[in-house]
Request: fold
Amino acid sequence: MGKDGEVESRRGAKERCMAEERLIVSVSGVRGTVGGTLSPAIACEFGCAFGTMLGAGATVAVGRDTRPSGSMLISALEAGLLGCGVDVVDLGVATTPGVALMTKLMEASGGVVVTASHNPAEYNGLKFLQPTGTGLTAAMAEKLKGIWQSRRFALAGSDHQGQERRQTNTHGLHIDTVCALIDEKKIASRRFKVVLDSVNGAGCVVSPMLLGRLGCEVCHLNAEASGQFAHPPEPSEENLTQLCQAVRRHKAAVGFAQDADGDRLAIVDENGTFIGEEYTLALAAAYVLRHRKGKLAANLVTSRMIDDIAAAAGCQVVRAPTGEANVVEAMEREGCIFGGEGGGGVIEPRVVPVRDSLVGMAYVLQYLAETGQTVSQLVAEIPRYVMVKTKLPCPPDAMELLTKAVRKAFADREGVRFNPADGLRVDLPDGWVCLRASNTEPILRILAEAADPRRAQGLADEVGRIVQATTG
Ligand code: MG
Reply:
């Protein structure tokens, strides 16, 4: 027993190790299966661990996506926080950027989102936020994991239990913050017809409120905050056929698709064609640079489109390792005005430094309103590339050998540049290829991009051969 009733749980060391194997505990937070690895006990333990890390007297904002397990997990999480003397502000169902924004606006000590983002319904998770709203750094995540593994929680005595209160103005504040950055009247004057697919996720309530305020006529698909996902919640082409059809049927100007926690956005053009997740950041960045000049940030595997858009505006792109927190860290360090990730994630630090589908929708509509062009016309203005993604089995610890071999193979190519921030990215004048190890599986991902599809495939194949020759 330590100060304030610090206790070690009765669970055996062996059992703890097994739980850790099955549950994914990473820099992105905790993720597991409901009724399986992510039990109420685990959520409560992580509440205790986060409460211990922040200390009694701290305040934490919590919210959840619409998964049916969210209510159970948030109650357990809150119990852990309260028991460590931490005050909790329960925001109820909210998007990840919504919880992040409230954490920032309330000047809370941290935030937690109960969500498994784009993962299937059987999963859920806990995402921990810093006071700025951004996810934890690797060092903070490691500290939290260490407290959880030790089970040495700083439980508070009966006079020092945390207080819980509910707050219901998240959506309104989020919309106000986004709308302060755009010309609402200009967008409203166009009376855009928009089809929105919220996949019955956390974006269900706030998103039509935003679009309504912007004068849009909204056809809302999968609009119930039930967590019963009508299709897999990853906003990728194969999951958005219903949206594409609805855009055509309603003759809409644009179709928007959100993932289950409303941080990522995919776009369908006025012809009902999915334009590709990489274009969300590209279009939003093109809009931003019309008005403000400055550095942009993106992760290493984001399409080269953003480099072309920045270069045309006389600006520069800072490349960061994969992971939202890394992009945000680069944005802060380099004073970037805007950034994001290729998978439909735009980050506007003037709202909150996390990916935000509401910002994406608002900026695309503003871009359409200002230019008078259609989505397909704006897409056609951006140089087109083809991205090839493959994965190969990779023995642990082989990365150093592999990156050396790839560097050697490409070293004498004309105009070659290497970026070793996350695996290795090789940039050539007519394309790039990146190899990186997965954080969760013993596999290696190879991504290549070029204007010529054969060139992209050729680069991926060439690196694939080097990997096989080196590891085989
Ligand atoms: Mg997400």
Notes: The chain has a mean pLDDT of 93. Residues 20-168 form a domain with the Alpha-D-Glucose-1,6-Bisphosphate; Chain A, domain 3 fold (CATH 3.40.120.10).
